[in-house]
Each structure stands twice: as structure tokens, then as C-alpha cells.
Amino acid sequence: MRVLVAEDHPRVADALARGLRRDGFAVDLAPDGDQALFKARVHPYDVVVLDRDLPRLHGDDVCRTLNAEQPATKILMLTAAAALEDLVDGLALGADDYVTKPFRYAELRARIDALGRRTGDVRPTVLRRGDLELDPARHVARRAGRDLDLSPKEFGVLQVLLAAEGATVTAEQLLERVWDENVDPFTNSVRMVLVTLRRKLGEPALIETVRGVGYRL
Q: Which of 36, 76, 162, 185 would be a feasible disulfide site paired with 127, CB 3.0-4.6 Å?
């Protein structure tokens, strides 16, 4: 899942990004509303974690614009204002969820997971194909009952392939969904991750290379 964290306090933004990346999310950061809106128009985010009191362009304006331009993108509004009227106002602007500061990381991550499951087509909480299953919320993957020790990128690639339900996924789509904005589009990162992922999945092989197109389960 790809997430944009729009937060002007560097310590909060960096801590949240570290936690989400550790849990397998692709995370980009925006320190103000202008950059948040620009990045959201360039990259396909599943969830935008949006601080309401952003500089340059207020979070309310970012929320209104994204809600109008990208209704499928889920917005989790993050704010220090805890009054009921603030929550009502935030949801009225088009936010899909609302969390007040200070927050607990485990709760925020669970809310991001829940919003991510609501993007696009409705999908089951646990993804399964044959003897392979993946639980994004618990960050657990198993094959034939055996736990798989996957890196965050391996977990993310496997999640995208499982969600595709047998359809072919291009390398460019994997870069968009699993890597952040700093990735080199000409890199061989996808191929390298697939090499180690295939080895960890074991036999019989599950991931097929569709020559000239991409990959599928």
C-alpha cells in the first residue's frame, strides 16, 4: 500500500514514516499543503495521512481538492483539535477518518489498513491463493502453514500480486505500489526483490514471468 504523510512537524512525520515503512508500506512525505497536493496529483496513493494545520495550503483546502479530484483516495485527517465540532467539520470536508494528536501508532496504522481495504474493489481481509495466504493487517504471510520471513518490499510485492487475482502486474505498477518516490524508475529493484521472493516461497514456483509484460501468480 502506498501512503502519503502530509505533516509539517519533522519528528512526527519521520517517526510515522519509519514505522509504516518497517511494516511494509511505501511512504512519501510532504511538509506543507502545496507539496501534499502536488504529490497526490502525481502519484497513486491509497491513503493520505493529512495534518489539518499545514502551512502554505491549509489541510482543509487539500482535503476539499483531493475529495473533488480523487474521490477514490482515502484521507485520514490528523489534528490536535479534539472537540466534537472539529471532528464533524473534518468529516464534512471529505475526510474518511479522523485521528487526534497525540496518537498511538498501532491505532493509526490499523486505521490506515482499514482505509486501504476500502480503496477500489472490496477485497477480503486475508488474501489467499492456493496454499498461500497473506494478512496485511498482521503483516503475516504463510505458505502451506509455514511462516514466510519476508522483507517489507517482498511482502509488498506479494500483496500486490495476490490482490491482482491472477492478472499480470507490470514492473512499473509494482514500483508505483510498493516503492516510494525516491526509487529510480530504471532500477532493477523489482527483479532483485522477485528473485529473493521466489526463493522464499519455495517449490512449486508460484510467480510467473510474462515476457515483455510483467508478473503474475
A: 162
CATH of domain 2-117: 3.40.50.2300
Q: What CA–CA distance (Å, rounded) separates 106 from 123?
A: 22
CA distances from 152 to 22, 25, 67, 155, 162 (A): 7, 7, 30, 5, 15
pLDDT recorded at residue 150 = 93
CATH number, domain 127-216, options 1.20.1250.20, 3.40.50.300, 2.120.10.30, 1.10.10.10: 1.10.10.10
Give yes or no for residue 120 having a pLDDT over 60: no
Query: Which sign does the torsion angle of CA 149, 151, 152, 154 carry?
Result: negative
Question: What pLDDT, on the 0 to 100 scale, is given for residue 141?
Answer: 94
Helix (H) or strand (E) holding 48: strand 47-51
